[in-house]
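User: Please fill in residues for this 311-position structure.
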């Protein structure tokens, strides 16, 4: 019996979520097809049809992009450690794959950072397909903001996944939230106490826009089953740097850039390997221009002592 498009999509999303949690593991075709509850042959065909890349290409891309993000966001973690943490068996294998994808060595990529685009930065960004000449990518606030370190609980959520550029908040991502709200209303789940969160799992300065994913999520109080509209997943508990801002979702990217690019490097925290998200508190059904603003939640852990700077 053939699977519906919606069932296929949910199973592929389940594999993507699994791969992100287990990026340091082997992630074989057998493992991923088991997660999807499909044969290896059928899984490969379904995955490629939905993702426009093979499972092997997806895993290779995800590992490189995760490693690139770690290089940009941490000054002291050794390159070898970053390589091993993201599923590479040796640093030389990582270095060759990294140079092939980004055009520069990992150490050079780290030095460039993203604090303004000079000629070399532009070549790198264009190669990564996230920048076009004349685009003002790094317009971030410069003043300090009040960042709180908080322990956030585990959330069980219903979600709809959007794939495409994050900057398109006013259309595609907004429509995704609207679909989620319509679904919640049809299930009598939309009340004054309903909370939403949005989770962008990729770094849009590294991941090509066509592969960026954004999950529009509704926090559930009871267990539900997946249907033709929504999937279900669990957002893990953890420690977060929380920045409360009075703005709409369209302006949130500027504050994300400030939190990651300016606050994090000078704080006593480092980025933790779990999802970041935007939290829309109760009465937050308007996710474009929420009345009470939104909460930017960045997963962090205490920075370990370093005695020597290492590339």
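Assistant: Residues filled in for all 311 positions:
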């Amino acid at each position: 019996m053939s699977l519906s498009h919606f069932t296929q999509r949910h199973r592929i999303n389940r594999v993507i979520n699994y791969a992100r949690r287990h990026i340091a593991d082997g992630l074989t075709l057998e493992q991923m097809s088991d997660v999807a509850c499909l044969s290896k042959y059928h899984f490969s065909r379904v995955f490629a049809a939905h993702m426009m890349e093979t499972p092997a290409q997806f895993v290779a891309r995800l590992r490189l992009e995760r490693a690139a993000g770690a290089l940009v966001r941490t000054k002291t973690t050794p390159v070898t450690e970053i390589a091993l943490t993201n599923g590479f068996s040796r640093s030389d294998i990582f270095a060759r794959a990294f140079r092939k994808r980004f055009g520069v060595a990992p150490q050079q990529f780290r030095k460039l950072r993203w604090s303004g685009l000079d000629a070399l930065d532009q070549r790198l960004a264009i190669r990564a397909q996230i920048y076009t000449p004349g685009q003002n990518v790094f317009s971030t606030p410069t003043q300090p903001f009040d960042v709180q370190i908080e322990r956030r609980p585990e959330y069980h959520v219903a979600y709809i996944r959007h794939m495409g550029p994050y900057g398109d908040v006013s259309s595609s991502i907004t429509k995704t939230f609207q679909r989620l709200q319509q679904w919640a209303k049809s299930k009598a789940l939309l009340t004054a106490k309903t909370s939403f969160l949005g989770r962008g799992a990729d770094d849009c300065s590294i991941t090509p826009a066509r592969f960026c994913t954004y999950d529009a999520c509704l926090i559930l109080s009871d267990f539900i089953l997946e249907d033709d509209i929504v999937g279900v997943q669990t957002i893990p508990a953890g420690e977060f740097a929380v920045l409360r801002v009075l703005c709409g979702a369209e302006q949130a990217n500027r504050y994300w850039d400030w939190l990651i690019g300016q606050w994090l490097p000078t704080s006593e925290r480092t980025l933790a390997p779990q999802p970041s998200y935007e939290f829309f508190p109760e009465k937050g059904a308007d996710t474009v221009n929420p009345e009470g603003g939104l909460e930017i939640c960045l997963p962090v852990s205490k920075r370990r002592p370093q005695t020597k700077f290492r590339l």
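For context: The two ends are 53 Å apart (CA to CA).
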